[in-house]
Amino acid sequence: MSILLKRGISRDSGVSLGDQVKANLRSRILKHEWDSGAKIPGEFELAKQYGVARVTIRTALRSLETQGLIDIRHGSGAYVADFGDSIRAGLQELKSITQTIKELGFKAGMLTRTSQIRAATKSESIDLLLESDTKVLHIERAITSDGEVVAFSYDTFAVEGLTTAAIKKISTGSVFAGLDAVDKQPVRARAEIHAISSKEIGWGSGKPRNGLYLQLHQVHYLRDGKPIATGDTFFVEGKFQFIIYRTI
Amino acid sequence: MSILLKRGISRDSGVSLGDQVKANLRSRILKHEWDSGAKIPGEFELAKQYGVARVTIRTALRSLETQGLIDIRHGSGAYVADFGDSIRAGLQELKSITQTIKELGFKAGMLTRTSQIRAATKSESIDLLLESDTKVLHIERAITSDGEVVAFSYDTFAVEGLTTAAIKKISTGSVFAGLDAVDKQPVRARAEIHAISSKEIGWGSGKPRNGLYLQLHQVHYLRDGKPIATGDTFFVEGKFQFIIYRTI
DNA sequence: TCCTCAATAGTTGTCCTACAACTTCAGGAC
DNA sequence: GTCCTGAAGTTGTAGGACAACTATTGAGGA
């Protein structure tokens, strides 16, 4: 059984205490438990709140500082960085797009247009380090927020090692869960951003007339550095706001 | 006089030991002292190398991990994340563009088109929290890499509190040095990315025919949260590669 | 009254030691 | 060859101590 500390932090969940505290503090900050610019409790106080050592709190705080969420001042304390709500859609935490939409309070949806297993194209085989003609899972979807199309997504997965159950999960929308089920969770991703104007992209009534998109070309990697998925997401310009926040 | 520890780390430079170690390790990683995916020395070994405590090394390592440069594995060690050279142009460290160009080994240049003090426009006064009609310094420049135009930049600075010497420094290219001279160094910035297609932007022979740009709209803030500068940089699509790397 | 400055309490930064939890690898049993 | 066990090495967490810095308070002087 799990040894529960305070505030839902547990000792044998497979995640380090520091990371758990970090996630918890992060969510408290994003929920506006403290105002922007306000001082959060001191390290000793937090250590008491969470029932962990001060060094554990420090690792969490330093990480949040590096992410730009707080500002630590020697001899004074840690203060919430003030960027209003924009943090939530920050590029540094480009997780699942649907999750970001949900966190912003909208209703996220997906419309799958095609989902098939076919031979990899040349560029896909390069990104995924596969022999050309290897079978891959290719999915084309439109992502909606409150029913309005905000992006078109063309994703490709290396199917080697994927079970049919996992493929089904991925196809029906939950990419994360599908990969997790076969222990193929990506731990890192690399993305390039481009501006593109094209009539070839998108479909249906959500397709913008000017054909202007912000293209995000991504490759997702496993812990051992092997690529597991690649894809392009085309954000309809103006429908989705990208924000970077940074410390100098 | 400065108490020198090992590897150029000093005890009274006004910068914390952890941050100094972090900067030093970061530069060692970017200089490829270790191969991608290779294991860097252990915490005890690094502590001995730098002449500081293990906890100091840990804060530096955790920060580098959050930035995505290394991958720390419990019970094993810290490994250099493998993204080739792309890290150097990462969006997370969107410092001066010219500096990025230099780090990539190209020759950076600037062509100033206009530089004047005039009344703030409506959008500028909103970004900088000024009364409209307040005087601001506005500069329009083209940024070049090896002589080729890669971006057009339209920047605006709040002149209140700036000396004429500082304004001159900013106008002649070194924005950073100019602001530093009057102790108005920005510590944080917020940026939005957009795709834009426009014939109004850019000038001269470097202006792309298709008018396609990646627009970066930025506002720079001082430590106390006050905005000091704002501006738009329009990157000519295809001339400059933006890369995001992230951990999940 | 207002300003200056020193004392003070509170907070983060660094150091030390110790042990727990995890990974890796070598060597032995089968 | 394969599997298992144990040892060694590494990171994670704990606790205590002091240094360095900040913010506040209050006394003293103009």
Distinct helical segment count of chain A: 7
- CATH topology annotation of the largest domain in chain A: Chorismate lyase
- Named CATH architecture of the largest domain in chain A: 3-Layer(aba) Sandwich
- Summed up, the domain count of chain A is 2
* Largest sheet geometry of chain A: 6 strands, antiparallel
Gross morphology of chain A:
globular
Unreliable stretches of chain A: none
Structural class of chain A, by secondary structure, is alpha+beta
CATH superfamily of the largest domain in chain A: Chorismate lyase-like
Please state the CA-atom Rg of chain A, rounded to the nearest Å: 21 Å
Compute the average pLDDT of chain A. 82
Oligomer: homodimer
Helix content of chain A: 25-40%
Following the backbone from N to C, one meets helices and strands of chain A in this order, namely HHHEEHEHEEHHEEEE
What is the distance, rounded to the nearest whole angstrom, between the alpha carbons of the first and last residues of chain A?
Answer: 44 Å
Tell me how many strands of chain A there are. 9
For the biggest β-sheet of chain A, the strand order reads 3-4-5-8-7-6
**For the record, what CATH class of the largest domain in chain A applies?**
Alpha Beta
Largest interface: A-B, 52 and 53 residues
Q: Hey, roughly how much beta strand do the residues of chain A contain?
A: 25-35%
SSE layout and pairings?
The structure is a homodimer of 248-residue chains.
Chain A: H1 17-30, H2 43-50, H3 54-66, E1 70-73, E2 77-80, H4 97-103, E3 108-119, H5 122-127, E4 135-145, E5 148-158, H6 164-171, H7 175-181, E6 188-197, E7 212-221, E8 227-236, E9 242-247
Antiparallel strand pairs in A: 1-2, 3-4, 4-5, 5-8, 6-7, 7-8
The structure holds a DNA duplex (30 and 30 nucleotides).
